[in-house]
């Protein structure tokens, strides 16, 4: 069996070859597939690349990414220890929200990424990734920071770091929710034994 990184690279190549969301691809600089360790216990899923991500080809490299990196350091992790991706892999024009059909087009590829990495915990950042991966009807304001099991995976819905940049109270909420991650991982490991 090929190593995980090679399998992930194949999915990225398949997205380009299959011309997924050609209108989005046409106005983006490049595909922003994912970044980090293919053996990560944690996978973070955002919504779509922004301007900085489109330029650099990596998710979460702008202001929200810097905040994400700080929160990771706060729980003793580095960016290289986790895997970070988005549902939609091309930057939507003018940073608009991804459309439902764009999320639907990319969702099978995200599920393949998760299947290859086999993380212990999938952390959704913002309502778009939460809505795509968890059952409908959840409100992030009510379920953030609460792990939930769904389709054989454990998910932790969190606010998007970008939202917390402009809202001090939400910033603290996100930091507090983030602080729960090590305990949640330990509980998941204990339940598997």
Q: Do you know the CATH topology?
A: Uracil-DNA Glycosylase, subunit E
Question: How would the global form be characterised?
Answer: globular
Indicate the radius of gyration in whole angstroms.
16 Å
The description of the largest β-sheet is:
6 strands, mixed
CATH class: Alpha Beta
- The CATH superfamily turns out to be Uracil-DNA glycosylase-like domain
Lay out the secondary structure.
Layout: H1 4-17, H2 22-27, E1 34-36, E2 42-46, H3 51-56, H4 63-74, E3 83-86, H5 100-117, E4 121-125, H6 127-133, H7 140-143, E5 148-150, E6 153-158, H8 161-165, H9 168-179, H10 181-192
Parallel strand pairs: 2-3, 2-4, 4-6
Antiparallel strand pairs: 1-3, 5-6
Helix pairs in contact: 1-5
Task: Summarize this structure briefly.
With 193 residues, this protein is of the alpha/beta class. It has 10 helices and 6 strands, in the order ααββααβαβααββααα. Helices cover 50% and strands 13% of the residues.
How does this model look, in words?
With 193 residues, the protein is α/β, with parallel strands linked by helices. The protein has one domain: Uracil-DNA glycosylase-like domain (Uracil-DNA Glycosylase, subunit E, 3-Layer(aba) Sandwich). 50% of the residues lie in helices and 13% in strands. It has ten helices and six strands. It has helices at 4-17, 22-27, 51-56, 63-74, 100-117, 127-133, 140-143, 161-165, 168-179, 181-192, and strands at 34-36, 42-46, 83-86, 121-125, 148-150, 153-158. The protein has a six-stranded mixed sheet, sandwiched between helices. α1 (4-17) runs antiparallel to α5. The longest helix has 18 residues, at 100-117. The radius of gyration is 16 Å and the shape is globular. The model has no long low-confidence stretch (mean pLDDT 95).
């Amino acid at each position: 069996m090929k190593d995980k990184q090679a399998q992930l690279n194949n999915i990225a190549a398949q997205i380009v070859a299959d011309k997924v969301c050609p209108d989005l691809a046409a106005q983006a600089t490049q595909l922003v597939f994912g970044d980090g360790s293919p053996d990560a216990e944690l996978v973070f899923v955002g919504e779509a690349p922004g301007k900085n991500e489109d330029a650099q080809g990596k998710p979460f490299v702008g202001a929200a990414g810097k905040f994400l990196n700080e929160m990771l350091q706060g729980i003793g992790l580095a960016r290289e220890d986790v895997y970070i991706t988005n549902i939609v892999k091309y930057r939507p024009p003018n940073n608009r929200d991804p459309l439902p059909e764009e999320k639907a087009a990319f969702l099978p590829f995200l599920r393949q990424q998760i299947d290859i990495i086999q993380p212990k915990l999938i952390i959704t950042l913002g309502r778009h990734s939460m809505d795509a991966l968890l059952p409908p009807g959840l409100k992030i304001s009510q379920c953030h920071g609460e792990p939930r099991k769904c389709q054989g995976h454990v998910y932790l819905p969190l606010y998007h770091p970008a939202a917390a940049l402009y809202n001090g109270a939400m910033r603290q909420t996100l930091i507090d929710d983030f602080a729960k991650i090590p305990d949640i991982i330990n509980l998941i490991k204990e339940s598997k034994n």
